[in-house]
Amino acid sequence: MRIAIVGGGIGGLAAALFLRQAGLDATVYEQAAELREGGAGVVVSPNSDMVREFVGWDGRLQQLIAAATDTKRWALYDRSPLERWTSGRISLLGDAAHAMLPFFGQGASQSIEDAAVLAACRRNAGPDSAAQALLRYEAVRRPRASQVQLMSRGREARNHLPDGPEQQQRGSQLARGDPLRDSAWLYGHDPDSALAAQ
Ligand SMILES: Cc1cc2nc3c(=O)[nH]c(=O)nc-3n(C[C@H](O)[C@H](O)[C@H](O)COP(=O)(O)OP(=O)(O)OC[C@H]3O[C@@H](n4cnc5c(N)ncnc54)[C@H](O)[C@@H]3O)c2cc1C
To answer: Would you say the CB of residue 32 lies under 6 angstroms from ligand 1?
Structure first.
């Protein structure tokens, strides 16, 4: 059984590593000839643009911006959850399956979770059941990754509320809560247990 992984990004490389650890051979096909900085639509912008955007903010922030030697802008894109990731012996993982906004810092993390579950499903399957292994992988991963996608999209508005009662209410909720414990389902997730429970 030969496994082809198209794309040597975080998801593809993590999948190759997990598969190799499981004793399976995987070849990574990467289109880029060399490593370089990623990001959609990276534009190098002068610090003065940023200074203008933060006029009236805390002086310490202004100092921080003034001290930066190099500033960049990234375009942020996400996609809505897909209805399926798998067709026969082909499946998606990482951003190709669930590109998301960065507000929970979960893009790469979800890709690595994908890779771990994919390798475990493949390891536990017989040589002729690649398609079933991929369907099982999708059944475990798609609901969780879709939830994180939608949650990250929701945070765009919540993180950028204009000053006012809604923003103050959010601020006091954050001050009262314990962000890590409240998000234990996200940050304390164990892909092996999720697979075992499926
Ligand atoms: C500025 C920035 C900050 C981020 N910060 C965080 C963070 O703090 N935490 C976090 O979890 N995530 C973060 N992310 C998101 C994270 O980088 C992505 O979610 C992650 O890289 C997705 O991994 P991937 O392997 O799916 O895709 P990618 O890393 O994009 O890799 C895809 C690879 O496929 C290759 N490829 C594309 N088409 C083909 C083809 N036809 N044939 C062969 N190869 C092909 C590309 O060249 C690329 O190497 C950040 C992203 C950006 C841009």
So the answer is: yes
